[in-house]
Amino acid sequence: MQCALLYTTINGQRRLRIHNLSLNCSSQLSELYKSCETDSLINFFAKSAYRAILNQPLKNVREILVNQTAHMLACYRKNCASPSAASQLILPDAMKVFPVYMNSLMKTAPLVGSTELSTDERAHQRLSVMAMGVEATQLLLYPRLIPLVRDKLRVHTQHGLSTATALPAPLRCSEERLADSGMFLLENGHSMFLWLGQASPPDLIQSIFNLPSLAHLQGHMCALPELDNPLSKKVRSIINGLLEKRPNSMKLQIVRQKDKPEMLFRQFLVEDKGLHGGASYMDFLCYVHREIRQLLT
């Protein structure tokens, strides 16, 4: 592939800039599915869908996304996969997470069409995604849910100083992964939440907020106090590290379990049923599986 750009510099000099890109090609479907990049694929589908909604009804766009997903997976099963029972869903190794990203895409504000979402909110997200790169789109569609508990953080002290450790492994974005006694950080590059379970231990609240219990926490807090203890330093270090990595400014929203603001937090748990419409990941997977079976019969 070759792209040429003819332009004039500020000094009046005419220049021609040429970009060359070499891509591997294959006539074998198995090689195509083996080398497929799911992140790039979902970025393409997101932009295509957001362009299509300007000229087509939302229902049609959503149906097209489901049909394309089913056709891609049916094609793999028919031409590449080993023979297996019809009741078994077969996914390419490189596309194991594709259905969860597709389901999350269909639950985004521009594609839901709920009257509870403002036109400004839907338009803003549409324009944001149209300008996003692959990594940013991936994070938006599947936020990082990070457990912030002592055994996961593994805070150690040497010579009176806390030592930094690796970031805890993210969990699947589902309510099932939350614990009543836990503290979890969720971020998607645009929003950041610190979720606190209703049974959070008093010593945890004391270490992070310098408060005797969760009941004393004020709902309007948007930053953690700077406390001189290893756990507080580690949690603030994780939050600050994520803020520095993201190109957008994210306001930290502190949410207590079962409080009203928790509804906003739960809409980012993309494997669960959408608050404004949209199936859970498992329901979507079952529906796609039925579509695949119909295509193959």
TrEMBL record:
GO biological process, one term: intracellular protein transport
Principal location: membrane
Membrane topology: Peripheral membrane protein
Source organism superkingdom: Eukaryota
Domain Sec23/Sec24 helical: 38-137
Database matches in InterPro entries: Gelsolin-like_dom, Gelsolin-like_dom_sf, Sec23/24_helical_dom, Sec23/24_helical_dom_sf, SEC23_SEC24_subfamily
One Gene Ontology molecular-function label: SNARE binding
GO terms for cellular component: COPII vesicle coat; endoplasmic reticulum exit site
Record Pfam families: Gelsolin, Sec23_helical
Domain named Gelsolin-like: residues: 167-239
Subcellular location: Endomembrane system
Stated name of the protein: Protein transport protein Sec24D
